[in-house]
């Protein structure tokens, strides 16, 4: 038996309401360029709208002019989507609360998750959206996921409940020492001021 290896998220498709509501939210609120529009090839009554969330992957929406926005929370039963998180940088994150307030969009306020900060709010159809900003930059040539894996190991070893900033910093050091060579035989921490 062999695995089927994924290479990343190809796209996420959501059921939307009417076409303009989808465009107004995904492009007009979240700034995702509206890049492609065609009929839903499996249902002639629906359109299929494509948006770029910023990494070249796709968020797609099935629209139908007979569906109107419903502001209730989407189901959170087992198997349902709880929320979708999108990355923003810290400069934008610092503006999110004001920009949501300008539109009268209720939100969670800033949540400190240790390795990131998050703000949650619902889209016009009740889907929970998270805007998240990492509190660290991965070393060149590595990824956020690689840092998180190493930080998790450090968290478990220390007995901490959640990943803390010290775990992230130490994980970055470990990754650099493992991936970047040095002429030094001893790369341990030193105090040249001693």
From TrEMBL:
Domain (VOC) ranges: 8-134
Pfam family, one: Glyoxalase
Annotated PANTHER family: RING-CLEAVING DIOXYGENASE MHQA-RELATED, RING-CLEAVING DIOXYGENASE MHQE-RELATED
Protein name as it appears in the record: VOC family protein
